[in-house]
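Section 3.1 - Work completed
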Amino acid sequence: MKNFLLPLYLFIHLSILLIIILHEMGHAMFAVLFSNKEATIYLGSHGNQKKSLNFKIGLFNFYIKKNIFKWSGGLCKNGGEMNFYQSAIYLLAGPLLPLLTGILLLFISRKYNSEYFYGFSFVFTGMSFLSLVQNLYPKKNGISLKSGAIIPNDGYSLVRLFRYKKRYPEYVKAINLFNEKKYSEGVLIFKDLIDKGLNDDNIIKVAIGSALMSKNYKIAEQIINEYGDSIEPDANHYINMGYFYSIMENHDKAMEYYSKSLKLNKSWHAYNNIGYHLNLSGNYTEALGYFDKAIAINPHAYPFNNRGLAKIKLGNVEEGLADLEHGHTLDPENSYYYKNKGIYYYDLNEYSKALEHFKKAKEMDADTYKIDFDIEQAEQQFAKLNI
């Protein structure tokens, strides 16, 4: 019995690894062939770059999880454009390649007098068939990505592809504009698709994200008011909803959505945004913990700028200014460096310097939170000193 169990265990584990590799390579090969753009292949994870070996071979960019005993699926990402039929082949290639490989191995193993080779071929083919069924059975919430987003499996993506068939070129154009960060152009196409009946969760979520990123808050409000609470949520959707309510200055509602996002995914966005709202309410001590966690995940300029303000408000001025300066080196175009530095000078009654920084913040981003109010307050205080 023991002589049978050990090879079976090895066959199953090796089959899982090989199925993941072949599945993602099936997607990647056709993605590169059809689009001539780079494909990023994650083996062992759903988009996690940490603890992964990274290397490139031509247009294939690999992230391979180092611990093969902790592999949990894979992911293929490609920003290239494919037509309807190419997209269908791309989706089918992932589940089909392992099964076709298994059938080939079974055929070859019959020519060799090796029970281990045949045994592995049999186990691998059986597991490949189960993987095919699992992947092609439509699941709307099939895969949870490292980012917190939840995406459908290949089967649901195929169903969605055929649903989009009549307007597929428009959909692809809008998605590509989103991937290229041309949000103001893409959101108009997404809104048109929604108005014409393609109002499923996928399009609504990306449309809301595009509207917010392009600062087209009117369209964002229209879509959210009609669909925001009816679609299947994920961590990214909750982040977008929280951001929308931040813009609307409904801070309680914003905190509610950010907290929901955090329960689904411990993202730096959620930690930073919760800390930001705690700053707004004057809870600087509590906010520091959230900024620390955000920075530990991703040392981005926003949490450094926000933590800097919290430290300054708590009297730890030297460390606070150091955080602001570090945030500025990470992203010199971040307007909140100038806003928060302006607040620092305002609190010192140095209204001329405060006004200079507030105006610089507005010049960089006119939508910086309450920057017009900051400028007005600084101008009033500066005028009083010069009466």
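Second construct:
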Amino acid sequence: MVPLLLVLLLALILFGAGFALKILWWVAVVVLAVWLLGFLARSTNAGGGRSRWYRW
């Protein structure tokens, strides 16, 4: 009984990790798209001069 529970627990953990990793990939794609849009918006700055779209 215990090995069966351990196998089920392992399958549940791996399924949860795979689902979380898939969500993290989508988050990474969205962040990359926002970064690219900000980079393009910086290159077409109407104010001129040195400007950054982020604040560090």
